[in-house]
């Protein structure tokens, strides 16, 4: 009932019905981890969970490791991109629309981790912002790349003050510890340890994918209104 009351109070704020979700690849372990998980790893699992079931995907833009930028406005186009070039995605922006979608996703801002026993961790930086105006996802991609280049140039040339690192680690949101089965062509259930620091939720579940665990946490988070700051370091 508390959540419903708060939701009614927020319905008049149009910016809460449109969310921009940025996912950035952090660290160097991703390539090895992707060979362990047929679904493509943490960044793609987060993308699939965010892009369906909790609002409508209106637009997306992705910057690949070779510098190319891909755009689309249909879920099928995003699926095709992930199937063909998922391992090359360095920065992805999703625009999701629907009633109070910003409130649903705001608590996902921070660092997400997938850890395996043999291949280390994959880290993904997520930033969720409300969109008061219809900002194109491609503009967010371009601005983020400009920030990276400006930061790297300042380091190389010893410029001061040093601008903020657009890829700095944010406070930890969730860690998933999971070793996907590799002995079968069909997905099998395996134990996955969920540590969700925002919700204070820790549980070992049996699942077939990272995506299932992420969706579980999204549903458990319904009714929370945490909106963490993007400032600070990962804990």
Topology:
Layout: H1 2-10, E1 18-26, H2 30-34, H3 42-51, E2 56-64, E3 69-72, H4 75-85, E4 89-97, H5 101-105, E5 110-116, E6 120-130, H6 137-157, E7 172-178, E8 190-196, E9 201-207, H7 210-220
Parallel strand pairs: 5-7
Antiparallel strand pairs: 1-4, 1-6, 2-3, 2-4, 5-6, 7-8, 8-9
Describe the structure.
The chain is an alpha+beta fold. Helix content is 31%, strand content 30%. A hairpin with a 4-residue loop joins strand 8 (190-196) and strand 9. Helix 3 packs across helix 7.
- Overall mean pLDDT: 85
Overall 3D form: globular
Question: Low-confidence spans: pLDDT under 50, at least 5 residues?
Answer: 226-232
Rg result: 18 Å
Q: How do the strands line up in the largest sheet?
A: 3-2-4-1-6-5-7-8-9
The count of helical stretches stands at: 7
| Main sheet summary | 9 strands, mixed
Report the β-strand fraction as a percent range: 25-35%
Q: Name the structural class.
A: alpha+beta
* Number of beta-strand segments: 9
Secondary structure: helix percent: 25-40%
Report the span from N to C terminus: 32 Å
> What sequence of helices (H) and strands (E) makes up the elements?
HEHHEEHEHEEHEEEH
Give a quick precis of the structure.
This protein is an alpha+beta fold and 235 residues long. It is built from seven helices and nine strands.
Keywords:
9 strands; alpha+beta
